[in-house]
Write a structure and sequence with these properties.
A hairpin with a 2-residue loop joins strand 5 and strand 6. The chain has one domain. The two termini are 24 Å apart. The radius of gyration is 17 Å and the shape is globular. The chain is 41% helix and 21% strand. It has 194 residues and is an alpha+beta fold. Helix 2 packs parallel to helix 4. The chain has a six-stranded mixed sheet.
Amino acid sequence: MEYKVVERDFISRTLDIVDQYDALVVKSVPEESRFEVTLLLNCLLGLIVLPFEHKKRAQGNQRFPEMCQDDLTLIKDLDDQWGLKRLTIVKFKLDGQDVSFSKVTLRQIVAMIRHAIAHSQFGNGHTQPKPIGTSVDYRDSPVSGVKSQITRINFVNKHGSTEFEASIAVEDLKLFTTKFARTVLEEMTDPDCA
């Protein structure tokens, strides 16, 4: 199908893929053959990276572009629908200055997660030191002694005097990314918020 507005349609279609997977694949595929975390990680391009890049270009390549109307909200003040209450921030420095959890905004988290996804390597964060980029932690699967279940996603970004290291449970990452993408999409669709 033809895109009408590429950025908006790509975000919308990525959300549809996640919803279709939940509605169709989860019900019909045995648990040991589901790859919902792999799908979610692949979909981060459309749920986080593309919205960030679209907004950044539209705003003249600002370091922390405005992502949505309430993106300066402290993450500690966001409701549970955002999935960030249990986000674990191990380290966060901006321009060499520590940023405490109580001062971290939604806009900053989106940027740091985007950077970890887009600029770096993907790795195993379970048995090795967490690489710069995105990595996964996992545990043995109760379904199979050979397989494992991914439990947390780690994001590490280091660039100059900026350092960010955090991890989030898979279900919380899914909540966050879909809530964020739906919020941005809503505002992109609303003529008063474009």
